Amino acid sequence: MTTNTHWQALRERYVPKGVGNMLQAYAERAENAQIWDVEGNAYLDFAGGIGVLNVGHRHPKVVAAVQQQLDKLMHTCFHVMPYAPYVELAKRLSEAAPGPSLKQTLLVNTGAEAVENAIKIARAATGRSGVVAFSGAFHGRTLMGMALTGKMAPYKQGFGPFPAEVYRVPYPNPYHGCSEEDSLTALHTLFKMDIDPKRVAALIIEPVQGEGGFYAATPSFMQSLRQLCDQHGILLIVDEVQSGFARTGKLFAIEHAGIEPDLMTVAKSLAGGMPLAGVIGKASLMNVPEPGALGSTYGGNPLSCAAALAVLDVIEEEHLLERAEQVGELIESGFTTLAKDFAAISHIRRLGAMAAMELLDAEGRPDAALAKDLTQKAASKGLLLLSCGVYANTIRVLVPLTATDQQIQQGMGIIGESLAELFAC
Ligand SMILES: Cc1ncc(COP(=O)(O)O)c(C=O)c1O
């Protein structure tokens, strides 16, 4: 048996520190909502590989689909010789996307790559260059991804200059002092002072901010954005990388708002642990770039496509949209019970199972140190828990939707024990 210490020493020697790690324990195997490290220690997984494992680790259907595909074909490059699973998945995603317009789907490898391509398509389709993004947004670590991301440290520091023509307005977040009205006023001001809306190709928004803190834009705000975009011929890009695939109780979080986006970026839970991402959009826009302008060597790899087709089946067969609501209720009631004992807990919120709470210090200010201590303490007790947020004081839960009620309650128990120990010292 190797040890965590052994791998940590090698990791420090050979992997740059910029690739951050939350833990110094090394995962060896996993099943549904549990991971075991190389020393045999078990962890309950409330992180889900940062929103990748809505159907759990190694879902048997996903594993079987990948194994079957492995026996047939691993790679041709879709640009060289196309294959059925890519087309089949493009059909399923295009048909599942909200709204009446005919859709098409481009498959790529990562969320950031999907975002890059959505901007490329929007610019090509509109002949305009400006892009508007929101404060607190996270859209990836590529250059355009960073330009669109609305948080400096650690994502952007030292990496500029960034692509031009990116403008930012505040994301509506009444808890931290920005109302929907404030956000809309900022947009109007932007169009008056900084860029003519006729030069704006797209506005990109997460319907529920992920890294930014699990804040959900209300349906009325999304509807106002839709109207504003229509008024000025601006494309609305909805980034569903973290909120998609049943997490919020709908296949896509934007369905809660009842509007049709022009383009949608997807990744993470799409392929249940295999690397895959995509842009789903109105065919009239998706079809504008010429052959060869879109794609990549590995984009829509056959193994990942097979996994994604199985994930879509699992979401349907195991009723994960309904299950997300139950999981969300369990988390919310767990947090609410804990809040009775710990005054630091504030602003419990959720959309489906995209659930979070905030931690505050004795003066009522965001307490990032406590959030960090809690994730570390929880890990030492066998629970993987993530923090997030512009103030780094939000505790978010991305537990597989296939976890049992008992596992979720067990995780809540560990959060309670961890907080009790932290406040006792
Ligand atoms: C909303 C959102 N967009 C884009 C990304 C980037 O995805 P990736 O890390 O796969 O490049 C993320 C990753 O967390 C995300 O949450």
Automatic annotation (TrEMBL):
InterPro entries associated with the record: 4NH2But_aminotransferase_bac (IPR004632), Aminotrans_3 (IPR005814), Aminotrans_3_PPA_site (IPR049704), Class-III_PLP-dep_AT (IPR050103), PyrdxlP-dep_Trfase (IPR015424), PyrdxlP-dep_Trfase_major (IPR015421), PyrdxlP-dep_Trfase_small (IPR015422)
Keyword Transferase: yes
Principal EC category: transferase
Top-rank taxon: Bacteria
GO MF annotations, alphabetized: 4-aminobutyrate:2-oxoglutarate transaminase activity
SUPFAM superfamilies on file: PLP-dependent transferases (SSF53383)
Keyword line: Aminotransferase, Pyridoxal phosphate, Transferase
Cofactors (names): pyridoxal 5'-phosphate
EC number: 2.6.1.19
Matches recorded under Pfam families: Aminotran_3
Membership in a protein family: Belongs to the class-III pyridoxal-phosphate-dependent aminotransferase family.
Name of the protein described by the UniProt record: 4-aminobutyrate--2-oxoglutarate transaminase
The organism's taxonomic lineage, starting at the top: Bacteria, Pseudomonadati, Pseudomonadota, Gammaproteobacteria, Oceanospirillales
Gene encoding the protein: gabT
